[in-house]
Amino acid sequence: MTKSRGILPPKVFWTDAEREIVRQLYPDTKNSEIVKVLGRHTEKSIWGIAKKLGVKKSPEYLRVMGGYLDGKRGSQKRFEPGHVPWIKGKKLPGRTSSTSFVKGQRPPNWKPMGSHRVNGEGYLERKVREGNNGGLNWEAVHRLVWKAANGAIPRNHVVVFKEARFTNVLEQITLDAIELVSRKQLMSKNTIWVKNPELAALYQLKGQITRQVNRIKETQHVQPSY
User: Fold this and answer.
1) Could you say which DSSP state residue 116 is in?
2) Is residue 50 a contact partner of residue 24, using CB atoms and an 8 Å limit?
3) Residue 124's domain spans which residues?
4) Is there a single domain that holds both residue 121 and residue 66?
5) DSSP sequence for 21-87
6) Could you read off the pLDDT of 193-210 as tens digits, one per residue?
7) For the packed helices 31-38 and 43-53, what is the interaxial angle rounded to 10 degrees?
8) Tally of structural domains, the chain
9) Element (DSSP H or E) covering residue 187
């Protein structure tokens, strides 16, 4: 994995002195003020290091700040366990009942069992079950053809079309046009080194150049003194 190419800022590590400052100031000081004292950390990072150090805001600080961090402010407006909404058991006004779905209603795009469709990847699918499972109600026809002849598809294996035999025409999806391969075989067949070795070599070269540029940037980077 290549580095961020300078997109992300360099990671800032906490010194023992900075941790001690947070330990002393965090209980009674705003995080924004601690940022000004340290000069190189964010409010979020200060909150994170305080959590690691086990330091919390003091009760006096929470009281002075209006209690917005003590978990109590606004509690009277929250839903409590067992709360019953005012609308429970009541009919909504207006025409909502006439525009709402009713039990047993079928959407306009409903298809009966055995229907066929072509999915977004170009594969022919058949509807094999009813229910609220969306795409799980459909299965690729080439998988069904193989399963009809051989039974369940083994674990970590897939049914694919043979070379130059892909089709979504029902009559052309026959047992001699498909084959069972392991996922490892499928990956090796579709790897970029097989399909486009020149492009793969360029990607590899690009990664090497990027890593070398990042190394040069690191050697030329001067750490600020504090």
Assistant:
1) E
2) no
3) 116-190
4) no
5) HHHHHGGGS-HHHHHHHHSS--HHHHHHHHHHHT----HHHHHHTTTTTTT-TTGGGSPPTT---TT
6) 666 778 777 777 887 888
7) 100
8) 2
9) helix 183-190
pLDDT(6) > 70: no
- In a domain? residue 152: yes
120 and 184, same domain (yes or no): yes
Contact 124, 168 (CB under 8 A): yes
Q: Name, in order, each residue with C-beta under 8 angstroms of 133's C-beta and a sequence gap of 6 or more.
A: none
Mean pLDDT value across residues 80-90: 81
Helices 43-53 + 16-25 axis angle, to 10? 90
Please indicate, yes or no, if residue 226 is contained in any of the structural domains: no
Q: Classify residue 184: in a domain, yes or no.
A: yes
Per residue in 31-46, pLDDT tens? Answer: 888 888 888 888 889 9
Question: Using alpha carbons only, what angle is made at residue 103 by residues 97 and 105, rounded to the nearest 5 degrees?
Answer: 90
Whether 148 shows a pLDDT value over 90: the answer reads yes
| Contact assessment for residue 183 and residue 157, using Cβ atoms and an 8 Å cutoff | yes
Q: What angle do CA 173, 111, 142 make, to 5 degrees?
A: 15
